[in-house]
Amino acid sequence: RYSREAYMELIHHIRESIPGVSLSSDFIAGFCGETEEDHLQTVSLLREVQYNMGFLFAYSMRQKTRAYHRLKDDVPEEVKLRRLEELITVFREEATKANMASVGCTQLVLVEGHSKRSASDLCGRNDGNLKVIFPDVEMEDVNNSEVRVRAQPGDYVLVKITSTSSQTLKGHVLCRTTLKDSSAYC
Question: Are 169 and 102 a contacting pair, CB within 8 Å?
Fold first, then answer.
């Protein structure tokens, strides 16, 4: 058990200790007994923390949970869905603001493969587990500047971030690198 104040103190401590840290959390809209005031407190928390990633769901009973056996699902479905939509909207607004801090920065990205939306782009994840999209082009390899390479799944690349949304960073690739060699650039 902890208070909102203690939680926010922890958030501030984490951000001071690890500049640029990405924060994520799970949120359930319409949990048993949730009041409108409870919901508004969750909205307020989303605005204050500015999570980079979030997993948001409407509550639904699951037979193998304690809540199923001990609590009454007393929030109407239409209220759950309205609250969920409000949480998603606020989350996206705030995550976009939080992710804007990455624009102009160079980030180490682990290549996963081609983007789902474009065969001419690659997709990977940065160390905050945020999705990063960048063009699939030939690039320099830091271990052999004479050779031009294309990134493959499992490679590390340096990407300069040029734009963002609530869930994705976009940028242009600078070079293929290694974990060891990347520290000189990031």
Answer: yes
Percent of the chain scored above 90 by pLDDT?
84
pTM here is: 0.84
| Domains parsed from the chain with CATH numbers | 4-101 (3.30.750.200), 105-178 (2.40.50.140)
Residue count (the chain): 186
Q: Which pLDDT does position 85 carry in this prediction?
A: 98
Q: Mean pLDDT for the chain?
A: 94
| 163-179: b (≥16 Cβ within 10 Å) or e | ebebeebbbebbbbbee
pLDDT (mean) for 154-169: 96
Per-residue pLDDT at 182 exceeds 90? no
Contacts of 75 (CB under 8 A, 6+ apart): 30, 31, 32, 33, 34, 59
Contact call for residues 132 and 123 (beta carbons, < 8 A): yes
**8-state DSSP, 22:** -
Q: Report how far residue 151's alpha carbon sits from residue 157's, in angstroms, rounded to the nearest whole number.
A: 7
Q: Are strands 53-58 and 24-29 parallel, antiparallel or unpaired?
A: parallel
